[in-house]
Amino acid sequence: MLRAISRSTQRSLLKRSLLETASAKRAAISCRWFATNSSDNFLSTTNATYIDEMYQAWQKDPKSVHVSWDAYFKNMGNPNIPATSAFVAPPNLVPGFTGPQGVSIGTGLASGALDQGILTHLKVQLLCRAYQVRGHQKAHIDPLQISFGDDKSKPIPRELTLEHYGFTERDLDQEITLGPGILPRFARDGRKTMTLREIIAAMEKLYCSSYGIEYIHIPSRNQCDWLRERIEIPQPYNYTIDQKRQILDRLTWATSFESFLSTKFPNDKRFGLEGLEGVVPGIKTLIDRSVELGVEDVVLGMAHRGRLNVLSNVVRKPNESIFSEFQGSNAPEEYEGSGDVKYHLGMNYQRPTTSGKYVNLSLVANPSHLEAQDPVVLGRTRAIMFSKNDLQKAKKAMGVLLHGDAAFAAQGVVYETMGFAHLPDYSTGGTIHVITNNQIGFTTDPRVARSTPYPSDIAKAIDAPIFHVNANDVEALTFIFNLAAEWRATFHTDAIIDVVGWRKHGHNETDQPSFTQPLMYQKIAKQKSVIDVYTEKLISEGSFTKQDIDEHKKWVWNLFEEAFEKAKDYKPTSREWLTAAWEGFKSPKELATEILPHEPTNVDEKILKDLGKTISSWPADFEVHKNLKRILTNRGKSIDKGEGIDWSTGEALAFGSLALEGYHVRVSGEDVERGTFSQRHAVLHDQKSERTYTPLQHVGEKQANFTICNSSLSEYGCMGFEYGYSLTSPDYLVMWEAQFGDFANTAQVIIDQFIAGGEAKWKQRSGLVLSLPHGYDGQGPEHSSGRIERFLQLANEDPRYFPSEEKLNRQHQDCNFQVVYPTTPANLFHILRRQQHRQFRKPLALFFSKQLLRHPLARSNLEEFTNGSFQWIIEDVEHGKAIAPKEETKRLVLLSGQVYTALHKKRETLGDKTTAFLKIEQLHPFPFAQVRDALNSYPNLEDIVFCQEEPLNMGPYAYAAPRLNTTLKETEKYKDHTVRFAGRNPSGAVAAGSKALHNAEEEAFLKVVFGQ
């Protein structure tokens, strides 16, 4: 094999030889190379293949390659010549011709060294290639002419100049043969030759007009060729009169909507789309074409800019509803909760498309965190694909995300979300990303808002094509949106559309942008609106008369006036705000007056034992790890014997029983298949192959789907994805698990804005489960705490008043979400099943202890699964055994979670018989009645303690204390008692950094508990 030479030498050698090639065969090889490789990447794996082909050809016939290659191959085979000296420079070629990247390709021409026609052809190939690679840098994509290709302060890329290739004005009328690498579509359409002037004009039109395209970074030659086929055609788009009428109509509605709102509500914030109105006909084109190609559901996500326009003109929310919200006089009669501002609300609607087919559109409600809805959209899209049995073909559901330019470049969740593009259990068949690029972020210029030329550069990481388009050229914009729809339907991958426009007003309509961008807004003040630009074009080309256009505008305006009048009497319903309506599932209003029964969550013994056999077995030809065989066998034995069932087994029984009952179960997160603590083992790996086996996918012939999947190393994106997944159907149990509980804090936006407040703000219900490891084990500040105090701070239950009987019956219906910290496998089993066996859904923050995964005190008997339900509190089972009966109990310690094991051990060590423990398994909604009744069952308490292992300023104490004080006032004997605290002292760090200090702190608060 060839010995290595320096990279620069190989690069120079390869470039020279390709330009010097004289035979037709070698010219074809050269063309093939240039057609598939960027001039910036001469030494890719693909190029090495061509060198190897040349070497093999040389072995058969040394004359079949250029003399420079012949000399090189001979020298490389000579052991007396060092590799660095093997290269022999060929005769110089063209005076002053410097190739790509400034590498000299020759400074003189040896007589007869090269056929000039071939040399010219190859140089034109390079020029065409340069337009494909760098044409976007010269494109007229900025209506303001201050950025990108229209920025006069930046030089034109050298590769796009005649001088770079040694051409002069005299060469422009030279005829060039078309073919590989030079406008092949033009050749197929009848042109065999074109002058160099015509070729340059064509490439300028195709790559440097109102749109610029980046696609050469895509490694797939098939995908690049597909795009070239649709870009490099003599007339990329040539709309008929009817098509132009449709574009004009859609643009009229979009621009008139903004003008109407500006006229009627001049002092209101609306975050208008002026300067980017062309996005509306673009999205409608995207939807229409996608529906023609098989899409049935489109899920949209966007921030506030242009949201009302999209609601009105894309999703078709009634304009009288929008105007009613501006007037502020009407609110949904059945609405309870805070509501939200109009430019955050979502909606779902079914509307017809131009093909006559209907499409289901849903716009996801969003907070002001600009990109937080991105993963929610993808999760909902994935769930729709699942519900339609479309995960393999990925044709029926599509996500569309609208981004601001500053947010797309800067918000980390954008990258986390894009990272799902090709993951097996997260992909959605391609997302269309639309950047509404108004070239400013609030008051921040792009030069200080991102480190890349374009906001879209991040998308190159997932090999997505990037289409830049001038917002003022609505026909070009429509062409690009149509092309993106076809790309997505063909390759099922993401596409980026960067619509470059401007922002007429400041960040909102009451802002003054000239404070910070005076020159930009001087240009904006002179800008014609996109509809004026388009109507002038249509009139000048004779497609329509001014009278035709003005009459249509007047008709649209009158319809807005009619809707405005109707808005005064419009009675909105909260249903129109919903991203997903959950048809057939009772609404909160319907449930408001009902006292709902406690749904049974127990399961028949035979079903559980059958499940036990399934989850502890594997196929005969499947080799399980020897240590895992023992774990699985013990799992099966514990169920068969009916005792000693551990945490993971209880969880598996919950998942399996729900799947048997027809509930789709999806578990997602980092390392969930095995479990971070090597506890779950839901997916078995064959030790002799790459095969896997998931027992819970084989619990019954008619079972619902069980999915468990390791995620990317993402919390914000992944939690948002699972929240979106949970919105689609109440029959899906969706659980996201943190690798360690403290990692949930990187998804705090999803917790704060969607999980805690989504139902109150948007009436959007979810049953998402957050599985969060929590507990202090002396392993340092990290991975000790799931920050239970943060969840409890978001709880909406009033601690000042003991609930009435009616409110006690409605605690779960009225809460915003649930927080539990169970300590037994049976309680885990029942809480997971309770999520599905109710007539309503609430999110669940489920804390679990790493220590209790295997602790002897955390075991349950089978009868606890076949009888009973979730226990809000668990009273001490040692009364009359290890400790005295309740009548003799002097101290009651209330606690939550794994601190129970330390307390139990300490009590045993001390031989204390008069201290009892009360475990609070559910913290929110708070078990007011259960705690009251438990306290009343102790007639002679002298001391009531709340113990936690967390510092005073963390953990559940701050939440529990006022509720316990309220509860004490409702007891028979303890109205004047107060609750004493025992736990770690306040701290800035979550936990101690050493095991010794951890033990000392634990011993200190245990002494406080027992009054030592």
UniProtKB/TrEMBL annotation:
Pfam families: 2-oxogl_dehyd_N (PF16078), E1_dh (PF00676), OxoGdeHyase_C (PF16870), Transket_pyr (PF02779). It is found in: Mitochondrion matrix. It catalyses: N(6)-[(R)-lipoyl]-L-lysyl-[protein] + 2-oxoglutarate + H(+) = N(6)-[(R)-S(8)-succinyldihydrolipoyl]-L-lysyl-[protein] + CO2. Its cofactor is thiamine diphosphate; Mg(2+). Keywords: Magnesium, Metal-binding, Mitochondrion, Oxidoreductase, Thiamine pyrophosphate, Transit peptide, Tricarboxylic acid cycle. It comes from the Eukaryota. The keyword Magnesium applies. Its EC number is 1.2.4.2. InterPro entries: 2-oxogl_dehyd_N, 2oxoglutarate_DH_E1, DH_E1, KGD_C_sf, ODO-1/KGD_C, THDP-binding, Transketolase-like_Pyr-bd. It is an enzyme of class 1 (oxidoreductase). GO terms for cellular component: mitochondrial matrix; oxoglutarate dehydrogenase complex. One of its GO terms (molecular function) is thiamine pyrophosphate binding. One of its GO terms (biological process) is tricarboxylic acid cycle. The 2-oxoglutarate dehydrogenase complex catalyzes the overall conversion of 2-oxoglutarate to succinyl-CoA and CO(2). It contains multiple copies of three enzymatic components: 2-oxoglutarate dehydrogenase (E1), dihydrolipoamide succinyltransferase (E2) and lipoamide dehydrogenase (E3). Belongs to the alpha-ketoglutarate dehydrogenase family. This is 2-oxoglutarate dehydrogenase, mitochondrial.
